[in-house]
Design a protein that fits this description.
The strands form two sheets. This protein has a seven-stranded parallel β-sheet, sandwiched between helices. The chain has a six-stranded parallel β-sheet with strand order 10-9-8-11-12-13, sandwiched between helices. The longest helix has 17 residues, at 353-369. Helix 3 packs across helix 4 (94-105). With 370 residues, it is α/β, with parallel strands linked by helices. It is built from 13 helices and 13 strands.
Length: 370
């Protein structure tokens, strides 16, 4: 780390649930632990109290709205950067990045500008700001390749791959929930008892591949392999019609009694731990695939489509879990193989939270030294 104490400001639209938001807290925690000053500017949210409890500061400012009116926030940000003697401005989303970049242009002693590309945003001038940082953190090689392919003017040397990570203490290798939790869980979801559990975590959108998961269970049933399926997190407000569609599909395929659809839960770790397979069947490539690492950290097999960040993680950590995207026949074959005899899983040596935190703080220090 740099010899002197740094002041780092992270910019994000809000601090509600999400991967970018969680990363902001994790980096803030690491900065505080290393003796630096951590500040986050956002529109607020449920995670603010946790951020403050962990030693960071929060400035409430609505910087996430995709509107010309958001430009009114630029002078406020510029004054904040100047008054607090900020060393690093780290933007995690497009509108906050534009506002931060414009605010920095008016400063004589300009803080260093860092961006993190958390997703595969639609190419264009609006998204291009995420490739303009002095350093651009990419959460996977998939994201790095995507930026280089779509923004040809980007200097490859500015792009740094720092994957997100999980804390092995939160997802301990070999963890199993106690018997009381199991009794409570299967009392709530009685249809999931009595056969190997397949869990597909993800919000209620077609992109998560829920229909493919249901088709998988039906194909396994046709092969004489009974399973159960939990679509974890798919039951969301405003997605009732989609949930009804999934339930109708399960009924038509003859597996309605083998499936449950739940809302988002706080005990996802326990659910993964009792699952025979954790599924990642997104129909479009994703930038990372955190649930892949969470499940493998627990020593649970993962079966997923071999594209994007999910394919990248499986290639590195669990090649046996890769299946060509959309190939339902191969998906069923591989599921049957893994249910019969899954290859051994070793404790994580990469994609750990401490690795991500150390690499990010090292990047900050390197910029300041330069």
């Amino acid at each position: 780390m740099a010899e002197r104490r740094l002041t780092v400001v992270q910019l994000i639209p809000a601090l509600d649930a999400g991967g970018a938001e969680r990363s902001a807290l994790e980096v803030g925690r690491a900065l505080v632990a290393a003796g630096h000053r951590s500040m986050v500017v956002s529109g607020g949210g449920q995670m603010v109290s946790r951020l403050l409890a962990e030693g960071s500061e929060h400035v409430t400012l609505p910087i996430g709205a995709k509107s010309i009116r958001s430009l009114a926030r630029v002078p406020t940000l510029r004054a904040l950067f100047k008054h607090e003697h900020v060393d690093i401005v780290h933007a995690r989303s497009r509108m906050p990045a534009w506002l931060g970049w414009l605010a920095l242009r008016g400063l004589p002693n300009r803080p260093h500008f860092v961006t993190t590309a958390h997703g595969l945003n639609s190419p264009g001038w609006y998204s291009a700001i995420m490739a303009r940082g002095e350093r651009v953190i990419c959460v996977s090689n998939t994201v790095r390749d995507y930026l280089l392919r779509n923004y040809r003017e980007t200097q490859p040397g500015r792009l740094v791959v720092i994957p997100r990570g999980v804390d092995p203490d939160d997802f301990p290798f070999g963890y199993q929930p106690d018997s009381s939790w199991r009794e409570w869980f299967f009392a709530e979801f009685a249809r999931l008892d009595g056969a190997p559990l397949l869990t597909l975590p993800g919000r209620g959108t077609r992109l998560k591949g829920h229909a493919d998961a249901i088709a998988l269970v039906a194909e396994l049933k046709a092969r004489g392999i009974p399973t159960r399926l939990l679509l974890l997190g798919a039951r969301q407000p405003g997605r009732e019609a989609y949930v009804t569609e999934l339930e109708r599909l399960a009924y038509d395929l003859g597996v309605a009694d083998w499936m449950e659809i739940s809302a988002q839960r706080d005990d996802a770790r326990d659910v993964y731990a009792i699952s025979s397979l954790v599924l990642q069947l997104s129909t479009k490539p994703e930038s990372f695939g955190r649930t892949v690492v969470e499940a493998l950290s627990l020593c649970r097999p993962v079966l997923g489509y071999d594209h994007g960040g999910v394919g990248e993680l499986l290639s590195d950590l669990y090649p046996a879990g890769r299946v060509p995207p959309g190939d339902l026949r191969r998906l069923a074959e591989r599921a049957a193989e893994l249910l019969r005899a899954a290859p051994a899983i070793t404790p994580l040596q990469r994609y750990r939270l401490a690795d991500m935190q150390a690499a990010t703080l090292s990047l900050y220090a390197d910029l300041v030294r330069r």
